[in-house]
Amino acid sequence: MTTATVTTTNATAMTRSNSINNTDDSSFLWDDLKHWLTPKHSLPEAIQLFQNELQERLNTSTVSMIPTKSLSKGIRSSILDNVVAVNHKRILAIDFGGTRLKFAFVSMPDCKIQSQHDLEITNKIVNQDFFNDIIGWIVNHPSFLSNLDSIEDIDNDLLVAVTFSFPLNERKEIVAMGKGFVMTDDLVGVPLDSILKKSFIENGMPNVKIGDIINDSVAVYLTSEVFCPQQIIGTKGENEDVNSFSLILGTGTNSCFELPFDSLPVFKQWQFKDSLKKNENVKSSIINSEIGFLGTFIDLAPFDISTNRYSKINMPLETITSGKYIPIILQNILQDYHIISNLQSSAIKFDGQLVCELVKQKNLTKLSLKYEEKFGLSLEQLIIVQKIAILLIQRAAFYLVGALKAIINLKYTKIVEENENQVFQFGYVGSFLQYCTFFQDQISIYSNNTIQLQFLEDSNLIGAAIAAFMN
């Protein structure tokens, strides 16, 4: 796999950083940071390089540009077509997001959440009992019982939709668990829908139909298609429907979008062999791009390496854009250039909330009082920290826009050629981007207002319900 490498060794970096013994030596600091943080390519060049990577990964990669769901028609039209055909008007949606589980009843086709509840998952051993306990908590919840009593089509099976944020193969089998969870051998090779069906039966609910199981990136895309409808003026002067795009920017960075089925390489088309054998008219596929892998051309600095300073980075774009890594990079800079002491650095919690708080402040006086009292950080130090955070967000926005514009160009080449100022909608999730309004503003600036962002609340639940309703 191609990886981005750091062009200056760690030893060199530490020699450079030792040149700065206090915050007064600002000339070298800003010259050095601008050298590392200023993109070496123009935005059009970056867009083309990203587009080349997208095409290459579509053709060859097994870990990115992954087709996840085949479609025979548009999502919005599928929902409208199913309004009469589908008996299940209220769907039980479950979001297995990691350490916190959510469930809600979602009314369709209006995609409205009737009630929502969550549960902190403390058991990290994933076996059949793990799912039995979770489903048991859901079906015995007062909200579940009251909603079940009021469902109009009570004689039909309860339709269940699931967003599962861990990797599944095409047979819906769990292939890996992260976030501290450990799966036992008895679940290996067992489809998740079978596991869940068994759990409902164990809890006295045999009349259940597992409508669909999707990952979180697909859930965001389906929600975006419904809540961010888009039309453009076509070549004949008439309005034409086009697909929206989805963006995930929280602790990670990702995007989903549709591509024509015939644009997929044969080995990626083949995963839909069951649909093809049934002669279903597969027109397009939802692509889980895993855009965090992009950016092999980006010149990374020594401080961009987060955990192991000598390791290679195989997700360059995610490293410099996500809410997980930007705070770590900020801390690395402050330590490497001796802007704050190690004691201060260890006391401060470097996270996305801190970065968002820093870059939005126009007057740091009030904030400095808090930081001076808690961490002994002076106003002068805080001003420098803020400037560095701003540079990091500006770099992130530049490359993120480059990647998103590359996705647009890949899908809508002719539209962009005819109108480079065409606006495209991106429905998004992720608290880092949601609360970092400066990041949003920089995306608007670098995209010349051609990328419009719309936050999608509860998309994991709504997207799952949409998927089940369409099936």
TrEMBL record:
InterPro entries: ATPase_NBD, Hexokinase, Hexokinase_C, Hexokinase_N. One of its GO terms (biological process) is glycolytic process. The keyword ATP-binding applies. CDD domains: ASKHA_NBD_HK (cd24000). Keywords: ATP-binding, Glycolysis, Kinase, Nucleotide-binding, Transferase. The keyword Transferase applies. Residues 246-470 form the Hexokinase C-terminal domain. Its EC number is 2.7.1.-. GO terms for cellular component: cytosol; mitochondrion. Residues 38-224 form the Hexokinase N-terminal domain. GO terms for molecular function: ATP binding; D-glucose binding; fructokinase activity; glucokinase activity; mannokinase activity. It comes from the Eukaryota. Belongs to the hexokinase family. This is Phosphotransferase. It comes from Naumovozyma dairenensis (strain ATCC 10597 / BCRC 20456 / CBS 421 / NBRC 0211 / NRRL Y-12639) (Saccharomyces dairenensis). The lineage of its organism: Eukaryota, Fungi, Dikarya, Ascomycota, Saccharomycotina.
